[in-house]
Design a protein that fits this description.
Structural class: mainly alpha
Distance between the termini: 18 Å
Largest sheet: none
Strand content: under 5%
Radius of gyration: 13 Å
Order of helices and strands: HHHH
Number of helices: 4
Mean pLDDT: 89
Length: about 70
């Protein structure tokens, strides 16, 4: 998911969002506050040009599919 140009922490948050975790669950998993997770999500949405968790998860899914395609074509 490097080509999405997310920080490592943003990629972690997006991973857990795509896995269906709530902000509260993500904050516990990552050991940060609920508000930090919300801030990361706001920045993720801006960077990906989406307006929802579903849109962000769809971008993550597409990025993984593209990555798998390019890896298999080498």
């Amino acid at each position: 998911m490097r080509h999405l140009e997310l920080t490592h922490r943003q990629a972690e948050v997006l991973h857990w969002v795509a896995d269906g975790k709530t902000n509260e669950e993500i904050s516990v998993i990552l050991g940060c506050s609920f508000f930090t997770v919300k801030n990361h999500l706001r920045k993720i949405y801006q960077r990906l040009g989406v307006h929802s968790r579903t849109g962000a998860a769809a971008c993550a899914y597409r990025a993984l599919q593209e990555s798998a395609f390019y890896d298999s074509s080498l």
